[in-house]
Each structure stands twice: as structure tokens, then as C-alpha cells.
Specification:
Blueprint: H1 2-10, E1 11-14, E2 19-22, H2 47-62, H3 67-75, H4 79-87, H5 94-112
Helix pairs in contact: 3-4, 3-5, 4-5
Length: about 110
């Protein structure tokens, strides 16, 4: 039922000729991709901060499904808190979460070898 309403919404009868015209035919579509904003709450001001953010992005790329839950259990915090602490560099648990994630990734790589 919802799909039918949605389809009917896309078309309308225009003028007296009763011809169907799509609403979005005359609208411009932006196809240019804009760069994504960084997920981390830190604007790098020095080379050391840029290097640290690159390391965090590398860790985030190696993270797998379920890692936040494991970190939460390790640090006795919730999985959502672990994820937010990782992304918020100035939060009190940030360095503990980063260290725990590094351990998990290192152990996973050693087990796979």
C-alpha cells in the first residue's frame, strides 16, 4: 500500500492533456561527491596530532563487527560508550579504549597467522 502511494506521488497529471510528468525531472541532481567530515572530535594543529588521527583512522579501518562489545566488556562500560570514547579524543576513557582496540586487533591478526 505504501509503495503504491509513493508511486502515485511521483507522478501527477499536468494541464488539460492529462499527461504524466515526473516531479523530479526538472530538478537538478548533485552528483559531485563532497569529502566526508572526520569522525573524530579533534582538529589537528600539529604534525603529531595529524599522525595520531591517521593511526586512529587505520585502527578504525581494521575494526570488525563486535569489537565495541568486547571493549565494553573489557573496560566494564557499554559498547556505545566505548565507541564514543574512541571517537572523542578528549574523553576520559579514550586512551584505554584505543589500547584495548589495539590489543584486540593484534590478537586477531596473531590468531589468523
Amino acid at each position: 500500500m505504501f509503495v503504491i502511494k509513493k508511486l502515485l506521488h511521483l507522478y501527477c497529471y499536468h494541464n488539460k492533456s492529462n499527461t504524466k510528468i515526473r516531479h523530479d525531472m526538472n530538478e537538478n541532481e548533485n552528483t559531485v561527491k563532497t569529502p566526508m567530515k572526520s569522525k573524530f572530535f579533534l582538529e589537528p594543529k600539529t604534525k603529531k596530532e595529524e599522525k595520531y588521527l591517521k593511526e586512529l583512522n587505520d585502527l578504525l579501518g581494521k575494526k570488525r563487527y563486535g569489537d565495541w562489545q568486547v571493549i565494553g566488556e573489557m573496560l566494564e562500560i557499554s559498547a556505545a560508550s566505548a565507541e564514543k570514547a574512541f571517537l572523542r579524543v578528549y574523553q576520559k576513557n579514550h586512551f584505554e579504549v584505543v589500547e584495548a582496540l589495539e590489543k584486540i586487533i593484534k590478537n586477531r591478526e596473531n590468531l589468523i597467522k
